[in-house]
Design brief:
This protein has 198 residues and is mainly α. The protein contains 8 helices and 2 strands; from the N terminus they run H-H-H-H-H-H-H-E-E-H.
Length: 198
Amino acid sequence: MVYGVAEVPSVKEILEALKNDRRLAVLKRSSLSPAEENGHQRNVSETEAVTHQGTLGVLGKIPPDRVGWRPAEGMLSLGQIVRHVWMSEEGLRRSALEEKWDYYEQRIPRGLFSILGEVKFVEQDLVRMEEVHRETLRAAAAFPLERWEEERVNQEFNIRRKVFVMLFGINEHQIHHRAQVGAYLHILTGQRASPYLV
């Protein structure tokens, strides 16, 4: 989805909407059968939702004048990290649930920088991150419980993982980049981006 400049909500508006939006929790509860209330499905959905909100909160604190900042030549800029997070979630979800490998078919031969492009503003990518996140929750809730132990194999990319492991990998990836951006923002601004006290 492409937004016009006037249609892109601010990061503050996105975060406020997430804080106030209880419909997602109701939707998640009503879309799961009693059997699905246990096991991988519930854990992935709940963990993904909490992880996503924390990640969005940190990435939403990137100052507009620092979007293009990178710690060293050849590393992702702060804006590219934001785009990478949602693109990889979408690609990993599609691989796990649909057995579609198009993300890897583009990323591996072309390289990460090529598929990310230059990022000058993060607002549209934060909106896209929210859309991808909601689609991940919807698709995970709809995916048959008996298929969560299925293995996904792609010899070309040397991948052999179970569906639930791939989906939990989305959380690990977000946490990794949340910590990365949080550390960079602390160095750049002197302020803490993360709410954690440790």
